[in-house]
Structures are given as C-alpha cells and as structure tokens.
Amino acid sequence: MRSGWVHAALGAASALIGLGHLPARAGVRETRTLAGVESVDRKGDADNDTRTFTLTGGYTLGAVHIIGEWTNPNGVATKPGHCYARVRRPDGAFVDVRLAYTSAFVANGTTLINADFRMSGADPAGQWQLEFYESVDDAPGLADMVWNSLRFEFEDTSGGTNGGDITLCEVYGLEQRAREFDVAGLSLGTTSWNIGSRAMAWRSAPDVRHPFIAMNIYRLRDGRFTQIGQSWVKHGFFALSDAQCGGFCNATSGEFLGVGCTDTYTPSVNANQSGLGPRFEVNPWTGAWDFNGSILQTGIPGGDTPTSRLIRVRDADLDPALNDGAEYFYEAFYIARDDANPLNSAAWKPFGVLGQTAGVWAFDQPARSTAPLPGFAIQGASPTAQVTTLAQFFPVSRGFAPDGRCFLSSEAIDNKDGTWRYEYALMNVDMARQVGAFDIPAAFGIAISDIGFSAPEHDREFLNQPVAGGGGPIDNDPWGAERTAEGVRWKTGANPLRWGTVYSFWFTANAPPTSGTVTLQLFTPGAITEVQGAAQAPAPKARCTGDTNSDSTVDFDDIVAVLQNWRTIGPFGDATQDGDVDFDDISAVLVNWLQPCP
Q1: Of 183, 170, 60, 75, which Cα lies nearest the Cα of 119?
Q2: How far is Cα 245 from Cα 242, in angstroms, rounded to an integer?
Q3: Domains of the chain by range and CATH?
Q4: Which of 152, 74, 149, 147 is nearest to 107 (CA)?
Q5: Hey, is 47 helix, strand or coil?
Q6: Biggest alpha carbon distance in the chain?
Q7: Which residues are registered as beta bridge partners of 448?
Q8: CA gap 211, 199 in Å, rounded
Q9: Residue 29 parent element (H or E)
Q10: Tens digit of pLDDT for each residue in 334-390?
Q11: Strand 256-257 vs strand 233-235: parallel, antiparallel, or unpaired?
Q12: Which member of 5, 143, 155, 486 has the lowest number of beta carbons within 10 Å of its beta carbon?
C-alpha cells in the first residue's frame, strides 16, 4: 500500500465533494456560498456570526442542501455536533439546522459536512437571514468552529416533485465474517441517505418495493485495475429514521426512508446470508425484482457455505507478499425502483491490507466518519487513466434512456522498449442487456502480444440464469480473445459482463497510444446491438507504398499478401491503398522492391 493514501483519499474527497467541484444536484435552481463563518456561543448571543443573502426566486422551494468544510481554529476540544444554524426565510419562517454530527470532542482538524432540510411551499425570493450558534458553548469566548465555506443549494419543485434520491454518506467497516479454504468472506457497512423530495419504499420481502445493495472490492497494481470480489445484493427490509448525515429527517414507520433521513446497515447486517440474493434477479436500471421463484423464496440450491453470498476474495489477491505495491478499494452501490436519480447511488473508499492472523485478514481503512468518495472506484482509482461513459442513449437518465451505462477505463503504459501495455477495465454499472464482446481498434501491421483477461468469480449466482435466447446456464469461463483485421476482440457466449461488475482486458502493442473508438456488443437481443465510445488505443502506423502488410519492408511477403487478397477491397494486399487489390498493387510492390520505409 502506498504511503499517504489516507491523505490522497481525503484530497480526492475534497475535490469531489468540496464546494468548488461538486455540481449542484438535479433540480437546484439557485446557490449561495458563505465564507469564514464562525460559531461562537449559544443562540441569540451578540458574538454569534450572522449573515444574509438574497435570492431571486420565481419558483416553489423544495429542499435546501448545505455542503461545506469546517475547521476547529483554536485547538480547544469542542464537539462539532453542537454546531447549528438558524435559517430564516424572507416570510419569517425559520428552521434550526444541525450542521455537523460528529459526537466526539476534537481539538483540531478540518472536516467536510453535509446537511439537508426542507423549507418548502413558498417562493424563496427575498433576503434570507442566518445565525450560526452553539447548542453548548464548549470554548467560552472563542470561536468553536469556523466554516471555511458553506454552499446553500435551493431546490426548485415548481414542476412537481423530483422524487426520492438515494446517495451514500457512509461506507465503512470492511471486515472478514467467514472463511472457506483459501477464500475469505467479507462484508462492509453502508449508510444510505434520501436527499430527494419524496419518501422511498423500504419494505421487506416478499414485497418488491425495497432497495438492493451491491458490494465490490477492487485492486490496482502496476496500472491494472481488477475486481477481486463481489457480494450478492442485500435486500433492504427496514428504514431507520436517522439523521446521521446532517439536516432534518422526516421520520417514518420504517417502511419508507423519509426525506432527509438515513438508514445504516452494519457489516454484520449486510453479511446476513438469508437477506442476500443473486444480482441477476434484479433489473439494475428499473430496480424491478420478483419474489416468486427467487432465491429468497426457494433457498439456495444445496444450502449455504460459510462464505456464500458474501464478498468472496481469495487469499492470494490480498496477501501483501504477493501484491507488492497494490492499492485496494471497496465500494457500495444502491439500486431502487423509486430512485429518481440513479447516477449518484454509489460511493467508495481506499483501504490497505495489514496481514492475516489465524486465518482472519486485518485491514487499514479510513474511519467511519471519513466521507466516502462519491461514484464508483473505477472513476477515480487511477489518476492517469481515461474514463469514458458508454450507453445506448444519452443523457443516461430514468424516463429517457431505456437502459443504463458502462464505464471504460483505459490507459497506455510505456514499456520503454518500443512497446506499450494497454490496460482496459470495463464496468457494467447498470446496463440490463449486459455486454458480450469488446473490440479495441489496432491497425493491421501493429504487432499485438500478451493478450489477457480477468473477471471476478460469480459465486453460484449463475446457476439459475439461462443464456440469452436459451441454452445452458451462464458460467465463469474466461472470454476468448483474437487478433482481427481491425484490432483485438474479446467475446463470450456464456459469461456476459453483468451489472455492478468489472472485467479487465489488456495487451501489448508496438505502437504508441492515440484516441480510438471502442465497441461493445450487447449480450441480450435488442434493436441496438452495439455501443461505442472513446478510449486509448494503438495509433496506426504510417504505411509506405508497396508495404502491403505494414512490416516496414517491401519484399516477397507483400507479393504473397497481394495474391492472397486478389480482387478484394483490402486493406490486406492493397499496396496502393486505393481500395482495390489488383495488378496496380503487384506493380507497386515491384517498383518499391526492398526500398526502405520511414
């Protein structure tokens, strides 16, 4: 594990979550930012910092979201959870908002905060007033906390509600729960947060109206990003009406996750095997699931083993002695049928492997209170990789696109010997039709070697899933690879790239990188059969006249190439590059016989 990884993670969190970089949520109409705000004494004290700002309005206000960064400036131990703001609307209505939820006393430090509250039902136009205060004065006469920056986002609900919206404010506590030979069964904790404008269904099975939680583990080593473990999906069953992420929680009875509310499933809850089902039963784009015939109804064939359904990781993928310099990441991803914005329902954190004692792995990981990185690990694990979104339709949003998306990470690593290693990690985020083939362009004449493939093992979940169009069960067989006239292709007939999963591909080429167009073939039938996007790919080599096979030499092999491709359109054998292999190409080879190529 590289040194300073915690600082790197926090730096990335600041970049992704911080005020200057986080885009406003869907439905946000106006934003206002305050800087250098102090919290000094109890409510109403003359020393407290008061601020005002004016909104233009012209819409019906929904929720107000606050995101900011606070600092303890004086070194005196205080409790961030004592920090509040009284927010008063132009019409006089007000609400007291708790700005931080850290329960421990801290002497110094800087932390990101999130808060969410509702002041709906009115046009927000006019002057807003804010008083920042302490519920308990922990440091009399001193500023307990200073908010370096606070951004207020005002949601517009004039056109109707935006619906429920799940995000994750906590991903934490990776731990080993079981062992089976050389496989460790792991789990982690998740805290979901409804930042939308409508409560979300959280009913237990057999009711289909609940979310699903997928958990993944990845490794980045020597530029290669691979998935080394994945769980089945946890079926949500009850929503705790907490406010662990800040703001006001509109509590419910547990069958719904209220607006502004959070719900935590601990590592032990997420490891309860009876509440975990196979991913293939869930449509990742619509959130649809049927209890009838599901594993939750029928039970797992042959019964559970100690690690079944958990995040299964082989010891060899974690052992520090076998993975020098490796970096690791864990990730959680929520899917729900009533999630109006499925694009913000995942988060991840880096972690390290400390070692194994008596068969149990120990991990070095950020504290639970450390904000996770929003999105998917593939989007930020490698700072030098190019990441592209591939989908059938853009924008990828519910109500418009019929299916979800994939992320493709691509990178070319210079071997310093005239060759480059091309690394690709392809994640099917929530594309229900799955991926069955992957094509990278590489022009004829480029030498390709060391073609490789890696995929996580699907733990028995494939047993009941038929191949599209009939046939036997989906399996774990690796994809086949071939060098084609157009490039490199990997394909499968029975092991498609399923949702929430990363497959990795690589090869070595004697050509430097350029931007190329890659192609994904969709696995299940449909009107659209492929999607394309940009990625790093080998640059075509310049051909000289007569060099029909692009080996930089005009010789007998080029005569053979012309004859083998006689009366075709090329590119093989087309020495003149005119789209027709004929006598002109024989002449071009002979005229340039043994001439040097650039």
Answers
A1: 60
A2: 9
A3: 49-156 (2.60.120), 166-379 (no CATH), 386-538 (2.60.40.1170), 553-596 (no CATH)
A4: 74
A5: coil
A6: 95
A7: 509
A8: 13
A9: strand 28-39
A10: 999 989 888 899 999 999 999 999 999 999 999 998 989 999 999 999 989 999 999
A11: unpaired
A12: 486
405-414/420-428 β-pairing: antiparallel
Map tokens 């029975």 to a residue: 494
Q: Which residues sit opposite 219 in a β-bridge?
A: 226, 328
**CA Rg value for the chain:** 28
HSE (side-chain half, CA atoms, 13 Å) at 476: 10
Asked whether the beta carbons of 510 and 414 are under 8 A apart, the reply is: no
Distances (CA, A) of 29 to 88, 183, 497, 527: 19, 50, 38, 37
Distance CA 316, CA 231 (A): 18
CA-CA-CA-CA torsion sign (531, 535, 541, 542): positive
Residue that the structure tokens 């969410």 belong to: 116
- CA 416, 218, 494, 392 dihedral sign is negative
Q: What is the pLDDT of residues 8-39, one digit of tens each?
A: 333 333 333 334 434 444 467 888 988 888 77
Between 96-110, 324-338, 495-509, the lowest mean confidence (pLDDT) is in 96-110
Tokens of 224: 């290669």
Cα–Cα dist 472/465, whole Å: 8
State residue 295 phi and psi, 5-degree precision.
-60, -35
Q: Give the strand pairing for 61-72 and 145-156.
A: antiparallel
Residue pointed to by tokens 């994750």: 168
Please determine, for residue 463, whether its predicted confidence score (pLDDT) is greater than 80: no
Contacts of 147 (CB under 8 A, 6+ apart): 34, 35, 36, 37, 38, 39, 68, 69, 70, 71, 99, 132
Instruction: Measure the CA angle with vertex 173, ends 172 and 177; round to 5°.
Output: 140
